[in-house]
# Entry
Amino acid sequence: MREIIFDTETTGLDNRADRIIEIGGIELFNHFPTGNTIHIFINPGDQKVHPDALAVHGITDEFLKDKQPFGEVAEQILTFFGDAKWIAHNATFDMGFINAEFARIGLPPILPERVLDTLSMARRKHPMGPNSLDALCRRYGIDNSHRTKHGALLDSELLAEVYIEMIGGRQAALGLGMAGTSNQAARGDTGMEDDVVIAAVLERPRPLAPRLSQTEEQAHEALVAKLGEKSVWAKYANLDSAVLN
# Structure
């Protein structure tokens, strides 16, 4: 399954007048980054970058002067995305601009069924929020310290990590990626859809050394003895003993 995590930067907030000035995307295959990316800066024509937008992404009118207009890069964008799912954070905003740009050059819109909004996913998964990209990076322990300004490719890279965590993390992605191959090979490719990944659990040839030293064990035993038979510790120690016996 092919997916593209993408982001856009724009001259402002109104897709009827403002324009896309940057698009970045990361290709995933079976929820794993392939290393294929797209990153394009776009000349917005006569539309100037609004000061509020400039404060967010730092992309100036001067920087964009020699870049290609959207009409000249649209085919490159469509070729990269192909038949993949379009995934963005607050996708309504990004797709509003994408489809507005396509409409200006006579191309059909990207239909809603091809789009996945990670902000909606996050709100369902974490209804108490916050669910901004920065907040989700903090929640999932993803380093975003280098994100001093918004940038389409950088934000796509961070969102790809967030998205993988939201769907179950890298271990889940590994299982999803293996399911369609390992079990079909084992069954002779019967075409069944309820694949289950079966992995052998290997025992260590030698047990790991204990982490507690003998001195620490003796200190612990002395502390437990001081607590007495009516202590909570003794209660649960007796329960464990009964279960084991």
